Structure formats: structure tokens, C-alpha cells
Amino acid sequence: MSNDEIAKVLNELAGFLDMDEVQFKPRAFEKAAEVISAFEQEIPELYKEGGLKGIMRIPGVGVGIAERIEEFLKTGHIKDLDKLKKKYPVDYQQLRRVEGVGPKHIKKLYRDLGIRTLEDLENAAKKGKIRKLGHFGQKSEENILRGIDFVKSSGGRFVLGDILPLVRLIEERLGALKETKKVVVAGSIRRWKETIGDIDILVVSKKPRKVMDFFVKMPEVIDVHAHGETKSSVKLSKGIDVDLRVVEEKSFGAALNYFTGSKDHNVALRQLAIKKGYKLNEYGLYKGAKFVAGRNEEELYKALGFKQTFIPPEMRETKGEIEAALKGELPEIIGYKDLRGDLQTQTNWTDGAHSIEEMSLAAKKAGLEYIVITDHTKALAMTGGNDEKRLLKQWAEIDGLNKKGLGVKILKGAEVNILKDGSLDIDDKTLSQGDVIGAAVHTNFNMSKKDMTERIKRAMKNPNVDILFHPTGRLINKREAYELDMEEIIKTAKNSGTILEIDAYPDRLDLKDDHIRSAIEAGVKLSIDSDAHNKNHFGVLEFGVAQARRGWATKKDIINAWPAEKMLKSLKDAR
Ligand code: DGT
Ligand code: CA
Ligand code: CA
Ligand code: ZN
To answer: Which CATH number describes the domain made up of 258-327?
Structure first.
């Protein structure tokens, strides 16, 4: 039984006591839970060594709470809690996940409307029953519905792009404290997973208490789960939790490695350590009681016998990276500064916000050498999509801008629509005059897997189509990908020389890491595009690069990491 599990059951008991209108006690249980989840030593160990008295050495844990913990350790239950659960038969944990719903609300919802589950709550909110209860208004009803949507669609996970700016702000703030020596974001964020469960931050400091006091008082904090000397955990107003740990300089590499994960990567490393007669944990690599390595990650991997002593965090998912790095066979994956161009951008000719010139200058400012203008085409009427005539007119304007010379090469493209039968909405004669043509599905998403695959294959086989834009059409946490036989699409791409796009928008990332890996193994080339509709959108490219890195892509695999001439020649050759 872990400290977190013990803390969780104490918090649950506090919640039920609140429902039962018990005074003071709930706060004491919550406080104890806070201390326990930040406690360095494992409670079961403490109990084994010192019994009830051992548990009572935890600050804030008196005899009453200690007895509850003992009961829980021995039986896995707390009788008082079981009794309260009979009295209020509600799915407490689920209901609490809805932002803004607390114990008192849960009781009222149960007493007045018989709500026990998330489903009950949703039904009542949809029928407008909640706004009629005292304490709740129309606004809280809407908030509840939004909260339920989030819990249901995401499993409580957040899109990395929605959270990263806040993470960077917190990182910067902590870094500016005079008490901090190092601040690093670890966990799934350091691995650039497309969705994240929580934020994990590691700090090196000689004055951890000061850092922790600052951390739990940040303006975004709405709840403090744990407030300890080396470990604290809070909830932010966005609904996401942040875990902060302070470690010693000496253990920094070991801690960073441990808290970066993935968990499976850690487990594999630990087994490797054991096989070599070591012990590995978040404090370091040990031979018996002797510290062997752990100041930084490299010395750790080196001591474990790795030929390559740095495995990029994006690759730490136990998908062969350990075996490869041991032998020195990890590929050199694409870097965050390696893109030279952007192959999908929209302008104010259709649904973008800025002109060709403004977009091109913004691309240059983002460090790019070339940009392809790919406005929508006529079947997407709501965007004012180009027809053949207007497309040619736009391309003539691009010729003019290139002649003027903006210090960035502008290429002629389009995002043409793949119609229901796999044909395109712009004729071949026109398309053949463009530099880079992308095709995408924007309508009729709900086709069978077989029909959708055939539809897209037909478009890919058109020699004028260079890139398949939005290969899966998914919107993370919002819309499922359309039904598609990805293996078949990759095979077709190989035969037709079609590029598959990694759309860099953090809630799109059409291709998953595993898709990217399969495409590369099949010899298919990829592009990483911003899909910018605004001159401030080029920043999203880093999410596309991250996804490519998670799929083990090298510069050779990503055509917009190539110089313009080489990229254009390869597209021409494939036509
Ligand atoms: P998330 O938060 O669900 O997006 O994913 P992570 O990977 O950030 O997971 P999290 O926050 O639960 O834990 C951070 C890291 O700590 C995780 O990547 C590996 C390490 N870790 C957590 N629990 C365990 C564990 O039970 N065993 C081992 N070996 N490592 C763990
Ligand atoms: Ca995490
Ligand atoms: Ca965590
Ligand atoms: Zn658009």
C-alpha cells in the first residue's frame, strides 16, 4: 500500500464526513492526507517498525487518525467510511473529478435529485434540474456540463499544447527564486507526450522550505494536496495537478531520470541495474551502500554500460530504445531547430488572418528559409476556397513577391479537397503548375474504413498530389480519427511517393508516434507543417518536431528539413 493510496482514502473519509456535516474532523483528515502524500518514508514500513506509535510520529497524525490508518493497512477498509458509503451511496471519486463539485454539493445533489453517478449528474444538468436547486445557478449548471465533458472525453488528460505555456511560466518563476539552483520539468511533459496527466517539476535547492512555501501560494493554486519539505502537490485553476520535488545536487540526474519516466523505461533500467549487481532508485545508482552515479543522467547510463549515454526523453517509452542505446545504435533524431520550411499555411485569401507577405515574413522570423502557401480550394466554400482562376491569380502574386525578394522563398501550393469519390476539386492542368500540392479530407468523415481508405488512396495516386495533409483528421480529446487502414495508406504512400503530413497543431498531430515509426520503416517520407492560419502560429512547429522525435524520425525522413531545391526536386521526381 502506498502513501498516495492512504492519503486518498483519508481524503475520501474527509469528504464523506463533510457530507455528514461533521465539524473539524474532516479538516484534520485532509491535513493528515496532505502530510502523508508528501511524506518521505513509506507508511507501511513506519508501521512495521514502530506500530501505532510509529504512525503517530507523522506530524498532524493523532491517535484517532493513526487508528484509521492501522485499520486500513490491516484490512484494506475503514469501517466508518464503509458506513458512510451506505448512507450516501454515491460514486464519490467520479463526481469529485468534475471541476467545482465538492462534498456538500454531492450530498445535496443526492438528497434532492437522487444523483449517484456522473451519468445521473449529466442527465439532471441537461434537463435543467440543477439550476433550480439552491446554491446552484444556470452558470454552475453550464460549468458542471463542461466539467463532465472534460472528464468523459479526456479521461482527465490535458492536451500538452494547452498546458505548456503555463508550465513554462511556472518554471521561469521558480527559476527566478534565489533559493533555486536548478528547475527542470520532468514526467510526460519532458517526453512531449501529446496528452499529459499532470505536471512534474524537479528543483535543486538548499532551502526547500522556502521554495515549497512559494509554490503552494502561487496565484493559480486552488487546492493543496501535499505540502512537505521535499514533496508538494497542488491543483491549479485549470484543473491540472502539479507535483514539485526538491532534490539534492548529488541525486539530480537520478531523480530527473526517475521522474522523467516513462515508468516502463524506469523499470527496465532498474532490472538492468540489478542484473549488473547495482541498486537504482531516484537517489542514485548504488553498489551496496556505496553511491556509484546519479549526478547527471549521462553518468547514470554510462555506469549501466550504455554506449550512447543520452536517450532523448521523447524516446523513453520502451520501444527498443534501451536495446539500441546499449549497442550505440540509436538513430540521430531530428532536432528542434532543423526545419527549413513550412509546407502548409493559409492566408487571408481564404480563412487565414494575414496576407501572403505577412505570413512569409513571419515564417522568416521563425527561422525558416521557405514557406508554401496552401490556401483552401473551392469545395470548402465556407472558407472562400480558391477556384482554378483565383488559384492561378494567387500564384502570379507569389511570383511577384519572389521577384521583389522578401528574404524567404515563397512556394505555390494549395490544400485541395479530396471529394467523396477520391477525386479532387481542382483540375489537374492547374495543379500541375503548383510547387507543392497537399490534399485533405474535409467533408464526409463518417465513411466505412474500406471506403475511406479507397477514397484517400485514389487521391494519393494522382501524380499532382505531393502530400497527404491531415492524414487521420483527429482532434485530440474532441474528435476521433476517421476510420482508416493506416497500413494500407503507408503502403500506397511508398508506391506513389506521397508525403504524409505530421500536422504540428498540438490538438491535431494527425499521425501518432507509432504511425510515424511505421511510415519511416516502410521508407515513406514525412513533412512537419504548422497549418498556420495566422502569423503568430509558427510556434506550433515544435509540437510537430516533438511528435516526429517520438516516432524516431531523422532529418532524412522529414522533407522540410531539407533545402528547398532538394525538397522540390524529390517532389518533382515523384510526380
Ligand atoms: P502522466 O502524468 O500520466 O502524463 O505521465 P507521467 O509519465 O508524467 O507519470 P507520473 O506523473 O505518474 O509520474 C512521473 C514519473 O515518475 C513517471 O514517468 C515515472 C516515475 N514513476 C511514477 N510512478 C512510478 C512507479 O510506480 N515506478 C517507477 N519505476 N516509476 C514511477
Ligand atoms: Ca506527470
Ligand atoms: Ca506526477
Ligand atoms: Zn483553413
So the answer is: 3.30.210.10
